[in-house]
Amino acid sequence: MQNLLLLHGAIGAADQMQPLANALSDSYKIHTLNFSGHGGKPFPPAGFSISSFAEEVLQYIEQGALEDVSIFGYSMGGYVAMYLAKTHPARLQKVVTLATKFHWNEEIAAKEAQMLNAEKIETKVPAFASALRVRHAANDWKKVLADTADMLHALGKDNTLKIEDYAGISTPALLLLGDRDKMITLEETLAVYKALPGAQMGMLPNTQHPMEQVDAEMLSYFIKRFV
Fold this sequence. Notes:
Elements lengths: L2 E5 L10 H7 L4 E4 L17 H14 L5 E6 L1 H12 L7 E4 L7 H9 L3 H7 L1 H11 L4 H17 L15 E6 L7 H10 L4 E5 L11 H11 L1
Parallel strand pairs: 1-2, 1-3, 3-4, 4-5, 5-6
């Protein structure tokens, strides 16, 4: 059975992938992991970065001696998967992304980082703060947000994957976007789709950005048709 690795997004954790894992388990050998600092996993000494997260995925693949590996990446997880397709194309069969932000500059990074203010989250959306506290225990969820904000600022100054990089990625890719996603623009997704050789693109109806609000059965249908 083909191996399919599911990667969570920024400030997320592997448990968020469970509904999708259940929907796909009859067709693939499913793998999930927590990036460093997420889901209670120890923080990396050097902080968060796309390249370090990609290295963790590569280590997982190598330690498990996994072959015929495809990746589904949600949001930041999709960016990590695409970076791996660029740097280690021989290790991946196919890549599927959903709700992945590809375009970064300093203005965009500053805007996204403002949404990671722990004090404002505690005050305005205490239920979300509680969920983050549980999701990342025994880590400090506020540090998860702060380190993520630092990573976004770094991306804003020097985007890890520039638009011209995609032309050199040969791994078959399917880019998915929710039609009601307010965080990811259709324009940036289209730009990467057009730059990637042989890529495919799909729009999920009635779908917002949060993974918890994605219809797992519908998403699994798109993945199964492509992978």
